[in-house]
Amino acid sequence: MKEYNLKEYIGVNEIKGPLLIIRNIHNVGYNEMVEVVDEYGNSRIGMILESGKGYAVVQVLGGTTGLSLGNSKIRFIEKPLLMGVSEEMLGRVFNGLGQPIDNLPSPSYEEELDVNGLAINPTARVYPENNIETGISSIDIMNTLVRGQKLPIFSGSGLPHDMVASQITRQAKVKGESFCIIFAAMGVKYDTARFFIDSFEQSGVLERVAIFLSLADSPSIERILTPRMALTLAEHLAFKKNIHVLVIMTDMSNYCEALRELSSIRGEIPARKGYPGYLYSDLASLYERAGLIRGINGSITQIPILTMPNDDITHPIPDLTGYITEGQIVQDRELHSKGIYPPIAVLPSLSRLMKDNIGKNKSREDHPSVSSQLFASYARVKDVRALASIVGEEELSEIDRLYLKFGDAFEQKFLKQDYYERRTFEQGLDLGWKILSILPKEELIRVKEEELKKYYKNQAENIKDEVPIK
């Protein structure tokens, strides 16, 4: 540990789980570092979770096992928790506290940064622009990811969000510029962590990925620090090295559960469903670290992934996340039960920054029309399916039956995509046109006439018979 001006006290007043409470001390600051030494001389690091006049609540990163009330030494370092960062951390695997766990030497660090980050001056922020191509059409074409955006994925227990996170990590690209990915996993099982590492190694993308893993048996405080460690490295790479950084964080529900656990230990009055009242501001302290800064070429884009308890999108975690972020990608259990991967429900999904970052010179000139028409037509499919369930398909009009055929093709050909299949913007748009050609021209009211002439006429008139329907 670096030498600081240490103020040391012997003995603590209370030990509650991973927390120490110490009184009759000098006034200390929130989030400052603490060194805790047991009676055998072994030290561990802590952070000040709460401070007041003459007292402090300290969360111990290594746990409080082996500490005693009378003999523990508390040294106040009067510095925030710092993390060494460098570009050499790409291609490496770290635990939730930023320590290497891949049996390789520690990288040489270029600087130490406060893991809590620094707020970006709002006047220095730049409106997010340009795209990150994930290779998944239901995201790229229907809910485009923009550099500097916060676009969460709302999933549920048993849905393949881990596979989607791995696929995005393997496939995501930024054309013509430096790009890397920071992958933070919180509270995951060992086999899930192994899946992520093996997937990145076998696909050859690990060299541009830094992985932070906090396993399910790790202390709650490690789960709380993991995303902060990942974002600290992302800030260094984006704002010091001018690299476009995509930060994928899974599972934010485990992070929020760790917050609730520590809040309960501290005896705080719970808010909605037992979560602390400061859940919104705590999540915002993570999500708002994404963005672009004027005069700096790099950017930080976030994809937080969370599992909605009981698939309830009004649960506090997705609800508050939706308030802070710029849209959401929603995974659907019904699509998953049909064998469709990725099971992304496009109608409740939304990318609020998409409309300003697609079209000519961004993706392709027909992108806005195609995505809008696919949305509108698929919404009509939902209505027709509801009607067919009441009156029977044989009672539907011919155009309604075409919409049913379009809906099946849209799900089985456009939404459904192999885990190892990567589609470009052009391929996704061409596939969208192919499926739209099931419908007659007069139904495509959201497409410009010149685009119809350019793309629709190139499709075979009998394409509706060529698209196999399951």
Give a brief description.
With 470 residues, the protein is an alpha/beta fold. It has helices at residues 137-140, 161-171, 190-203, 220-239, 252-265, 279-287, 316-324, 333-337, 367-391, 398-415, 425-436, 449-455, 463-466; strands at 7-10, 14-16, 19-23, 32-37, 43-52, 55-60, 73-80, 82-85, 93-95, 111-114, 125-126, 153-155, 179-188, 209-215, 244-250, 291-293, 299-307, 327-331, 344-351. The protein starts with 6 loop residues before the first strand and ends with a helix.
Labels describing this entry:
single chain, 470 residues, alpha/beta, Elongation Factor Tu (Ef-tu), domain 3, Rossmann fold, ten-stranded mixed β-sheet, seven-stranded antiparallel β-sheet, 13 helices, 23% strand
